[in-house]
Design a protein that fits this description.
Helices cover 48% and strands 20% of the residues. It has 593 residues and is of the alpha+beta class. The protein has a four-stranded antiparallel beta sheet.
């Protein structure tokens, strides 16, 4: 294993991006393959006592790269590499080990005693209490299993009592609240503490020099009562040991079924769902061993999740295929493969670390991808000229990135040290092969742009400018660009004379890109073909608008006609009413007279 000195010297930020790998010394191909896989990574050997194993430290650019490398190593070198572990994880393990060893030493010396039974002692207890009344008072904190108030030979109370709760959490809550509250129980303030064995209690009391007589009497009485309850304590101690053994067995069985991928974890369950209803719903996928609902002890209700263990791997896979499709109690279920406890804790840690990491809007971390240091193993066989070129490029890039309008493109690569006779098509073919495409056969390539920069003042007979020795290659995605960089950068096998291309992520200027966009728009308007197409589109839009205007006019005319018709009808009705009123007028006059 790696020595503590090696890990302790690492800071927390550096430990996030460092991996330790262990493999057999006899297998020499592993290190070469790792060097090819990860370029720009600082690899150093670690001193160890074991002669059969060799340990190496891999330092990455950032935490994300370290995390991705860990999964890649696990996939590629499954059997060859014995162990892959992050420095942060190793640090935590060592801290836990040191704490455990300290606790063991303290336990051996007798300085520390670990309480395993939820049993407390109540001192300064009123003589008015009996076991029933004390039980009622203690049930306010949680479920009480046993209450015991010791008495003298003459039947009088000794002034203290014992209470056994359901679990350690409730017992601790009772001790804290009784000691912090100023409440009087039957006219007295109760003092609560954990019930300790006699030997531990005596050892603690030896250090005390001055005590009152009443406290001494209480301690003697409590010790006598503890002698009587030693048999009860032994029985209670045996029970958790038996439970721990059973739990360890279950844990082993669980890890086995998780490795075999027979257990699934179900989310978004209804609180009304039972183990029987879940079993009925999932039994269509195959025979089920058990269904375990996850229970919230504090709220005393289900968490809305459960574990289901199938007898076969296929039935578990079929159940996972129905994730976000299967319904139970009018709720859509999320079904995933169960993960071991170690993996869960690792995932939680990774999530916390990724959330705490600052956002890199300019992709500055990518600037170190493809960088090779002079003293590293990758610099072996490299010429002095190449080393100097790389150092110059690094200084230029660092100066550029000091200015805020420069950023690192995640899809565009800058390629330096290109041979003068190499054409654009030949360079394209090299990068096509790097991303797994076959030149001449793949119809749609993932390379958007590939060009070598040329001096147009020095044109050859074919009308092609002289190569400046560098160029640019742009891809459709970041993953392909990264893959091409690792495959082509510092690769001596590409050219027969052994020249090595210097490949890095391109550093772009935001202002230049804006100007380029403006130029492209202007050139489009100058282009005759583009103009004709634009005129056609505008004429079509204009026709549509004209048609709309005509339709609107017609609708208005129709509406006006309708209004006029209504006005005419109203006028006719009014005239008819007037005529009727004139006909009946003389009769009405006569009646009035």
């Amino acid at each position: 294993m790696v020595e503590n000195k090696e890990i302790s010297c690492l800071t927390k930020t550096k430990a996030k991006k460092v991996l330790f790998i262990t493999f057999d010394k006899e297998d020499k191909t592993v290190l070469k393959q790792i060097k090819k896989l990860f370029s720009g990574v600082i690899i150093t050997s670690v001193d160890q006592e074991n002669d059969q194993k060799s340990i190496y430290q891999l330092e990455f650019v950032n935490y994300k790269a370290c995390k991705g490398a860990k999964s890649q190593l696990g996939q590629k070198f499954d059997q060859k590499i014995l162990q892959v572990e992050s420095a942060l994880q190793k640090k935590k393990k060592e801290n836990v080990k040191t704490q455990k060893s300290k606790l063991k030493q303290e336990k051996q010396n007798g300085n520390v005693f670990e309480v395993n039974v939820p049993k407390i002692i109540l001192r300064n207890l009123s003589f008015k209490f009996d076991e029933e009344s004390l039980r009622k008072e203690m049930e306010a904190f949680g479920q009480v299993k046993l209450v015991n108030i010791p008495k003298k030979d003459d039947g009088k109370m000794k002034g203290f009592g014992f209470v056994v709760f359901e679990n350690m959490k409730v017992a601790k809550q009772a001790i804290d609240s009784l000691n912090s509250d100023n409440k009087n129980y039957m006219g007295k303030k109760i003092v609560a503490d954990w019930c300790l064995p006699k030997r531990v209690y005596l050892k603690n009391t030896e250090s005390k020099v001055e005590e009152e007589e009443e406290e001494d009497n209480d301690s003697e009485k409590s010790d006598n009562s503890q002698n009587e309850s030693d048999s009860e304590e032994d029985e209670n101690v045996k029970k958790p040991r038996q439970i721990n053994e059973k739990f360890e067995r279950k844990k082993k069985e669980g890890t086995q079924d998780v490795q075999e991928k027979r257990t699934v974890f179900v989310r978004n369950l209804s609180y009304d769902s039972t183990e029987e209803s879940v079993k009925e719903q999932f039994s269509k996928f195959g025979p089920i061993k058990y269904v375990k609902l996850c229970w919230d002890k504090e709220l005393e209700r289900p968490k809305g999740t459960c574990f289901i263990q199938f007898e076969s791997n296929q039935s578990a896979l079929d159940a996972c295929a129905e994730s976000e499709i299967l319904e139970l109690d009018s709720r859509v279920l999320n079904i995933d493969m169960a993960v071991s406890r170690n993996q869960v804790s690792q995932l939680v840690e990774d999530k916390k670390l990724s959330d705490n990491l600052p956002r890199d809007n300019r992709n500055l971390a990518l600037a170190k991808e493809g960088v090779i240091y002079p003293n590293s193993y990758e610099a072996e066989g490299m010429s002095k000229g190449d080393i100097l070129k790389r150092q110059k490029l690094e200084t230029i890039n660092a100066d550029k990135l000091k200015l805020l309008h420069f950023f690192v493109s995640p899809t565009r690569l800058s390629v330096h040290n290109i041979p003068t006779k190499l054409t654009d098509d030949e360079l394209r073919n090299i990068f096509m092969g790097a991303i797994g495409e076959i030149p001449g056969k793949t119809k749609r390539t993932n390379i958007i742009e590939c060009r070598i920069m040329r001096d147009l003042t020095r044109v050859s007979g074919n009308g092609v400018g002289k190569s400046k020795g560098y160029g640019f290659v742009e891809f459709t995605s970041f993953d392909l660009a990264k893959k091409a960089l690792h495959a082509v950068n510092n690769n001596a096998e590409i050219f027969p004379n052994g020249t090595r291309l210097i490949v890095q992520f391109s550093i772009e200027d935001m202002r230049a890109l804006k100007k380029k966009k403006e130029r492209n728009e202007k050139s489009k308007f100058k282009n005759s073909n583009f103009k004709s197409k634009l005129n056609k589109i505008n004429s079509q839009n204009a026709n549509v608008i004209e048609d709309d205007l005509d339709n609107k006019k017609k609708i208005k005319e129709k509406n006006l006609i309708k209004v006029h018709m209504l006005e005419r009808k109203l006028s006719k009705r009014m005239s008819q009413e007037d005529l009727l009123s004139t006909k009946h007028a003389p009769k009405n006059k006569k009646l009035k007279k």
